[in-house]
Design goal:
It is a single chain. The chain is built from 10 helices and no strands. The longest helix has 31 residues.
Amino acid sequence: MAAFVGLFRHDFGLALRQGGDTGLVLGFFVLVVVLFAFGVGPEAATLRRIGPGIIWVAALLAALLSLDRLFQSDYEDGGLDLLALADLPLAFGVLAKAAAYWAATGLPLVAISPLLALAVDLDAAAIPRLVLSLLIGTPALSLIGSVAAALVLGARRQGVLLSLLVLPLYVPPLIFGVGAVGAEAGGANLMLLGALSLAALALCPWASAAALRQALE
């Protein structure tokens, strides 16, 4: 546990000191939502109806921006070899890095989502459900993305390959996340979203670890 916490603190502190990834993700998230709002037009009823989808799609795209660098620096400087040889199982190391990535990029998206909900004229009663859906669903995005980041490690044009791999896998969180904002069947979709995140927590670190070992061979 000490090694897990130490790795999490190292990656999270590094992300905070650099600040580039967090600022880039937040800026992109805000820009996409605002552009969608301008593109749809000032019709309040239309914005209110598609607002949850706009925010969730923007969150999915923002989550992809720096995902290709999740393991890249460790792969280049030999840190990944040390992580694979450490006493901490590689799957738990992957989980620590994915958790730090989510804390540095996903959690800020959740924090500013109420402001962007106002930009798309989302009903006030739906804003807590939107925030809760993002809080439950964004960890699944980071965990699923970690598998794709491990699979494309060392490949040429990693960003393109990563997008092709991960975007189809992001469809279920998108569907359940948008459905959770609605008053009807919102609770059921939240539970499905939570189940998806728990499944990703149980499976994705091991899949990522297997892909990393393959990349290191």
